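Re: the request from the purification team.
They wanted to know what the chain is likely to look like in 3D before they choose a buffer screen. I agreed to run a prediction and write the result into the notebook, where they can find it.
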Amino acid sequence: MNDEIYICGRNGPKPLGNKPMTSAEKQKRSRLKLKQEGGKEYQIKINKQQLDAIKLFASYRQTKTNQTIKTLLQRSLDHITNVMKEVESMNDKTDNEIILFMETHLFPQTSTKK
C-alpha cells in the first residue's frame, strides 16, 4: 500500500486532503470558480471549412490548433466587449446610428483576392 503524503508547494490546484485531485475534481473546481466569477463555459461546433482555416492559421503561427482556437475566440470576445462598451456610452445617438456603428465595427468588410 502506498501512503504518500503530497506537499502543497507546487503550482496548480491544492490537493483535497492528502491525495491529489482527480481530473474530474479539478474540472469541477475550475467550473465552480468560473461560475463564482460570473463566467460560464460553452461548447462550440466548428465546421470543416472553419477548422481547415484555423489549422492553416495555426501552422503559420506554429501553434497547436486548440491553442489557436482559444486565442482567436479570446481576441474576438475582447473586440466585441470593447465595441459594446463604446455603444453603452452612445447616449446621444439614435438606434439606427448605434446599429450602424455595431455593424461597422463588429462585422467589418473583408476583401478576399480570387
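For the purification team: Residues 3 and 69 are 41 Å apart (CA to CA).
Please add any questions underneath this entry.
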